[in-house]
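User: Please predict structures.

Assistant: First:
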Amino acid sequence: MLASIILICILQFKIIENKESNCGCSIDRAQKDNYDRKLFYNVLQSEEGECSTDTKVDENEVYEVTNDMVLIPGREYYIGTDDIIIKNDMEGPEKIVKLDSFYVDKYEVSNSDFSHFTKLTNYKTEAETFGDSFVFVLFLNNTFRDEMKDYRVLQAPWWYKIMGTDWKHPYGPDSDILDAMNHPVIHVSWNDARAYCKWRGGRLPSEAEWEVACRGGHRATKYPWGDKLFPDKKHMANIWQGTFPHHNSEKDGYIGTNPVHLFPQNDFGLHNMAGNVWEWTEDSWSSDNPKEKVKKGGSYLCHRSYCYRYRCSARSHNTDDSSAGNLGFRCAKSA
């Protein structure tokens, strides 16, 4: 089903409606934005005064692009699955694809990497331009959560559309990334990701390339590391632990994103292909709507009970201008 987000007015409040299934994986940016900015920033008032919307990233510090790339040999591979879990996602059937050799990032693009890019190019993300992005409920304090309850996604009320949120302010205008420079950059749209990869002399991976990379050279494996979610009772990925969306036990060590160098997952030596953050691919979801782009891998919010999409064959989609607190990317390059 094609995801769509519309804004509707009820009692002079905004509610964002998501017509995706009950998952809420495909929260798309609304086409119209008529925020009452004065009302919003009044909500941000606290005993310490109004929160600053200025970035706290040190503009004088230079960060190196740290991503290594892994060569994936060209040949025939199997993608998709005959063990279809989510029929509407069109994750099957299994089929053969022939790929040329390509390189793919060993790690997801980090805040450090993206900061280096923006400092050299003065690039502004679409979330910065629009002035908002989507934040998960547990990253908002109770008072703010209650005040902003009418800015939720209707069918996924754990997502709040928060003004002043972008890659430098991932949980709202009073947050920063100073302690998360080695975490994946989030709140980046498909267009933002594509611009970064182009700057690096690369591109986004195709969906087929991404899935082949995910499986590490093996056929029909469910996860990057094999078919068991917890081999030898070991946590292999940053996914939701507990009861979604109210309690995350953090048994895997994280309630949100984790550093990009953790969770090595497959025989290609790639990290975080499942979990942590969704990753953009180059492909469109369908020819009917080329602006809907495929994303793969699931995120730290995925749980088998509601969004079983951290499997290699699983897929979802967002519009190319959408961003959220669990959406990132990695780059590819033709060999």
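Second:
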Amino acid sequence: MSSLPVVNLDAPRYDQSTYLNRAKHFLIVTNPLNVFATEEQLNRAARIVKDYRAGKPVSDATTVDELWAAKYLYDSAFHPDTGEKMLLVGRMSAQVPMNMTITGCMMTFYKSTPAVIFWQWFNQSFNAVVNYTNRSGKTPISQEQLLTSYCMATGGALVTALSLNRLVRNAPPLVGRLVPLAAVAAANCINIPLMRMQELKNGVTLIDADGKELGESVRAAKEGIAAVTFSRILMAMPGMVFTPVLMNSLEKRGFLKRFPWTNAPIQTLFCGFLLTFATPLCCALFSQKASISVDRLEGEVREKIRKERPELDVVYYNKGL
């Protein structure tokens, strides 16, 4: 074994009970620079993590910081359940560059019906790739479930965007620029529950503080899905609210009339700047290991826990992202 101290690589490096530590964790996880990691760097990170877990000597990492750097790089590219290398555009590190491009284009071309249709479709196609890439290895998403979610979310986004565009046709420009946000919010409200329909039917697994399984709860699943939907919508808001405000100000000052070619680049780059911080900060709003009071669980599972583990007042579950 190497001279490295014992480190639990199966848990985040920072204590997840505080918002600041969760934000720090997700800032590293969603780091867009990881997109540029070479195959050699990724394979080296995978070798370090696998060797350390197997108790083999680790020559490529001599400090705890180097070990954690390898772990975070490994997590950014390899599936946590299957260990397979994930599609580049589906990785967490690709969220900012992909979303800044899509969001920038949705808000640049919001007046054109063909462009609205194309970019809303493109956005939901990207979401489908992300959902497929990050699917659970234990309870995988079926192709039927993925296709249903994709079609429903795309339909919801298009209906919302096209309907609102018609309603705000004579409204101030700033109102029209906010239509893409409403479409994205509607799609999230459809997409996330559909993608996690199995949890809504059968419940999410409940565990104690040590990770021992206690049963399943539909109520906990509903709370987790609601929290994820809220954080996803909030994640999109800074880029899709502040960017229209900026562009509206530039338009009033005549800047866009003098330099029309700057429209798309400014919106895309400004969205990217905001998303770089909004993505980790909103992911950190709720703890990944969420808690729920035993008293608030459904009758059957509540009675089961009280009978088998009467000392427990609170149980935990994986909220998802």
